[in-house]
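Can't paste images in this forum, so I'm doing it all in text. The chain is below; anyone willing to post the predicted structure tokens underneath?
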Amino acid sequence: MTIQIIRTPHPPGSLLAQIGDLLAAEGVPGDEATMARRLALLPREDRILMAVEADRLLGFAHLRITRDLAAEEAAEVVAIVVRPDYRRRGIGRMLIAAAETWARQSGRARLLLRTDVVRTPAHAFYVALGYQEAATSIDFIRDLGLERRADLPTVPPPAGSR
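Text version of the structure:
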């Protein structure tokens, strides 16, 4: 098995479609057109690492530089996904090692990984690589695309309708 790690801001179409397939297998829908649209909107510093054997994508990691007022700049692994039939074969380790190299080369002293609280196999993987749990948080989201009746202004009935 000869695996190549490719780092790029713009994966070729055939690999981009496979990224969509991997995400769909994890419950994140997205065809090639959706992936291309999302990719075009990413910050220019973002990178995609791809573990490739021949023309088959075995896994990928999405990397970003995070900036905020509360902490120093850090490199972040926004997403990492490995094909289920290739897990526990070193692909994830290769992607994280390449992410660490990218972080150092881009002048960042920290690499941040986030994972859902229920993804305990991922937690064990990160701890085995020497990462420490730094925080536990809960995300709150409100879908602003949905009109909620309670949020609409109250309109009095037209005059004379009583």
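The chain has a mean pLDDT of 86. The longest helix spans residues 91-105.
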